[in-house]
Amino acid sequence: MICRLLIFLLLLTQVGCHGIHLREQRSGVELIVLGIAQDGGVPHLGCQKPCCVSARRDGIRLGPACLALVDHSTGKTVLIEATPTIEEQLSLLRDLTGHANEGRRPIDTLLLTHAHIGHYTGLIQLGREVASTDAVKVHCTSRMASFLRENGPWSQLVQLDQIDLQVVEKGQPVEIFPGVTATAYGVQHRDEFSDTVAWRIEGPKRTVVFCPDIDGWQDGALDLLIDGADLCYLDATFYDGRELPGRDLSEIPHPPMVVTMDHLADEAREGPDRFRFIHLNHTNPALRDGAVRAEVKRRGFSVAEVGESYFLD
Ligand SMILES: [Zn+2]
Ligand SMILES: [Zn+2]
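Above: query sequence and zinc ion SMILES. Below: predicted holo structure tokens.
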């Protein structure tokens, strides 16, 4: 426990600690950020650049993008994404909120965006060799559900009723807590094994959008996603392309943060803190470069922070 808290404190030292709300409210539905990195996390396997060498040296670990929702009135929990660091992220959730279930129900419900490793492979921990969960509800698209149903080891989770697949229709809200809905929006992305969605969570008073992976904003996806949303967690895999020297920025299948900030300049001026960047690649300078972080803030945007939280009512 002490070790975990120490790592968490180190991590806060690294990324700053300016949560939107610091859990002063103990009722209602709370959203908590449990991970902000791209699929491979920080440090990243095989990376010997200063970003990951220093992270290893300093004991800094950042898990892949992940949000949790807790209904404080019932103690029920929802996780958006099952990342490879699901155990650490659920432990952090317990440390931060006092909630996180136990035994065969470490989580009540999961929402998945797509079948890339940082977003769903934590499901492996739900299987026979580890938690052997009891019918955890997994909301995902029909293509994602087919992928899980038809391919091992995920198929065994279905056969043993360790997960209970709930196929969602894009654009159709499903109730995840009383008075709180989740709606999947289809987005363009590298769809080898599944299609990809962003999630829109609508609470009694506030709405949050989570879009960790998208090819770009060319088709008007951004306007649709942010419409009426109070808080938007947006794909920030790369900052401005400096992370990939020699590559043409227009060929990178993610909207660079600088492009997103250009698109949303007017809206960001009206509501600072509304747009929060998530899913940062280990090389993204916005994780650690003070000048870059100051520029993001100056433009009215923020990099999401592990542990930040927001109430939906
Ligand atoms: Zn990803
Ligand atoms: Zn690295």
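The first helix runs from residue 2 to 15.
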